[in-house]
Write a structure and sequence with these properties.
Layout: H1 2-22, H2 27-64, H3 70-76, H4 82-115, H5 126-148, H6 150-153, H7 157-174
Helix pairs in contact: 2-4, 2-5, 4-5, 4-7, 5-7
Length: 175
């Protein structure tokens, strides 16, 4: 019994030290900061998608114009390398947003495990579900833009992008 009492005192001391270290800012502050970071990332990603669509629309409009001077046609057409660069940047941002969602899911799972030991646990899954749904919505918008621009991307870039898209979606679904 004495050994149990000593271990209990040690564990209570460690628990107090952990709570003291992490309670300098309220949990809601950390969660709010994380939510803002995620929503900013999604807004950046949506902006990239609009840029891609505008670039695609601009190149299609310049091809439809019947400009008499070939030099004017070349000036009206956007650079070929700009579209793949924008798509790759958007893909990186999509993967970063996916990592944030997966991190939040992992935190939720760990909190659920700790709740079995008596820790406080917020069971509300609505914010996590909203994150997943908004990420999947942006995923499909970007995927649609990539498929629409597949002719401009080339035979070697498109399969790599599609593979990355599949990895993002499968990791979200599996977790």
């Amino acid at each position: 019994l004495r050994l149990v009492a000593v271990l209990k005192a040690i564990l209570e001391g460690e628990k107090a030290a952990v709570l003291k270290r992490d309670h300098h800012l309220p949990l809601s502050f950390h969660r709010r900061q994380e939510e803002l970071k995620f929503s900013l990332g999604l807004q950046r990603l949506q902006h990239r998608i609009r840029e891609i669509q505008a670039l695609r629309d601009g190149s299609a409009a310049s091809l439809q114009l019947n400009l008499p001077d070939p030099q004017l046609k070349a000036e009206a057409k956007p650079p070929e390398s700009e579209l793949p660069t924008l798509i790759l940047e958007a893909m990186k941002e999509l993967e970063l947003a996916k990592q944030q969602v997966l991190k939040r899911i992992q935190i939720w799972k760990r909190q659920q495990q700790l709740a079995g030991n008596g820790a406080l646990f917020e069971e509300n899954l609505a914010p996590l579900q909203k994150r997943c749904e908004s990420l999947v919505e942006v995923y499909f918008q970007l995927h649609q833009q990539v498929m629409a621009a597949s002719a401009e991307l080339g035979a070697e870039l498109l399969p790599r992008l599609l593979e990355r898209f599949n990895e993002v979606l499968s990791s979200l679904v599996k977790r």
